[in-house]
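help with this.
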Amino acid sequence: MKKKSLSFFRYLLSFTGKVVPMISSLLLVSGTTDPLIPEKNTDRKATPNIIIILCDDLGYGDLGMYGASLYNTPNLDKLAGQGMRFTEFYAAQAVCSASRAGLLTGCYPNRIGITGALDHNSKNGLSKEEKTIAEIVKEKGYATAIFGKWHLGHYKEFLPLQHGFDEYLGLPYSNDMWPVKYDGTPYTDTTTYRSKYPPLPLIRNNDKTETIRNLDDQSKLTTLYTENAVDFIHRNKTKPFFLYLPHSMPHVPLAVSSKFKGKSKQGLYGDVVMEIDWSVGEIMKTLKKEGIENNTLLIFTSDNGPWLNFGNHAGSTGGLREGKGTSFEGGQKEPCIMRWPGVIPAGTICNKLASTIDLLPTAAAIVNGKLPEHKIDGVSILSLMKDEKDANPRDVFFYYYRRNNLEAVRKGQWKLVLPHEGRSFENQQPGNNGYPGIAPENIKFDMALYDLRRDPGERYDVQKTYPEVVKELMELAEQARDDMGDEIQKRKGKNMRSSGLVKPQ
């Protein structure tokens, strides 16, 4: 309908004193100049749905728009075209449990006592004193659910329902924490540490529902999580919801459903990523079918970089240095795509620094939620998402690893790697077909300064050329050590909190 015709139509109807308010309401709700085409469920602009899809061990170069080859990711490519692709987005830390703790709480994981990758022997988990994204939005009336890998404590007091989630289905820890060999057969040698793992449990809410015994069982996980996520969206389409979908894949051991087995030219790893792309497509289709895609913030990212010593069962860093388990760029720099029609401009690229620890304060800003009273490390990146000119909410990032080792600090384009010992995949022959290669753990790294704008692969040290930059970053490192400590220097931080400990039985 043309604007002139619409204005005349309004003029005629204004004599009734009743129709104009109705037309105006339709205009406000639909966000269009045509009152005859209202959109569904757009009367909740202050409470948009929020979906976070998190992969496990997906590399920076593993998606089509980030340079992947020999397989396609059409749904994620489409998502990027409809939203924003981040090029400087970082996981909280380069290992599973720590990374997830940072995402859900907005804190560097070492601040809250979550380190490494918790397993069936771990007596700790996410403390009840920490406030998660789920708890913040739940206070605003949101329905909340997680379908996938939790990895923040397997005892009941640590599971998702005790941290703000209404529903949970998934694994309590990584899919390789089971008594099964790399070829998929059970261990017969009971002297190896992996043979002592219990069978891998699938948990619904607070209780185990079945056991994942073999690779065939694992091949169902991506579809299982996706089907539950789709069902949750259908059931909650008329009210705001927060959906957290942390896939178990492409963490080894890799397994894929018959829908995608043998479909890529890159082997099993490509098949697995294609199925994850399918999963994203199912979420996108469901949002569109229910008429709520325009009122949903959809975020896709990964928990850390690829586990490179698994060779053809590992992903690509896209040329970045090292991978999972390191504080070099390949370990923590992740693909990230966000879509929120009407808020995030379509087809945009964000080259500003951001991290998973920023998702909690961003969600709080979006729903006008209450932030935790204790200190957090994240900042709202809503201004970046809106593509506001000169927005730069985060200029500094600290790279911690192991229990509490400060290994690097970044400000702007500069990254100062601090002296530390760590893992290295470089110049090592990787494994093949599910078996790992060697990845030495005690390699000594000297201090080095990298200009990530010119040298994202961290290949040449420029500290002698820019001593003033080194001095500035060293001062930031000292501030971090005072705040959070540094085990490399035997320093204790002033603002540290403990993880939760299991209650004595």
